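Posted in: Structural Biology > Protein-Ligand Complexes

Title: Requesting predicted complex, zinc ion in pocket

I'd be grateful if someone could produce the 3D structure tokens for the following input. Sequence and ligand are given below.
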Amino acid sequence: MSDLRLLCLGTGDAFSALYYSSCFALESGGHWLMVDCPHPIRKIVREGAQAAGVAFDVSKIDAIVLTHLHGDHVSGLECLGYYFRYILGRSLVVYTHIDVANSLWNGVLSGSMEWVIEKPGALPRQRALDDFFDLRLLPEGEETKAGPFRIACRKTIHSVPTIALRCTAAKRCLGYSADTMFDPTLIDWLADAHLIVHEANSAFMHTNLDDLLTVRPSIRKKLRITHYPDTLDLAKAPLPPMRQGTVITI
Ligand SMILES: [Zn+2]
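-- Reply #1 --
Done. Output follows.
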């Protein structure tokens, strides 16, 4: 019987010198859904999978969900776009909200991916997002089916357009806050999930850990924190921290 598993690959914030940037992969029935894609993604995936004893590599990724376009969440996408096109010979499926998608090519990727000189002296040839990626939009207010997964999204309160997620497979649900200020209405939206991964970072437009401690006990017991600062003492954290290179069965 298949279940829903989370492979934790990175737990740090954008400035971390200890951890990879926050990202994870969900697995159900042999299908893999990556959530966010920081650089260096191949190294992050290899080390995390190896530490967890899981047979996972980027070649097994069925799709990526992008929560937003800050570099610590999207900086590995260029690498995977090239890797999928030139090494694996296929497009990488990317799910995100239209407000995130609108800036993905012109705001993030085009500077390094739009023009290619294919041999010395040749004129540059123009390429577009769909030369590398199969972009699929996540509408709000309904679930999107992605293999065995069903994905729901909701905008968060952050400094750029960002989506929180509910990912369901094998009758289990993972809730993910992504980057957000503390928002009780988002907590309510995530409340039915079996496991809730929430960011905990006191920086500008993020969630102060003390605020997370105010949620009602029935939700608090399902919380795991990520995107935490290097200064957090993991052994003494008041909520269980996600750990790089570990697997959680949801
Ligand atoms: Zn962010």
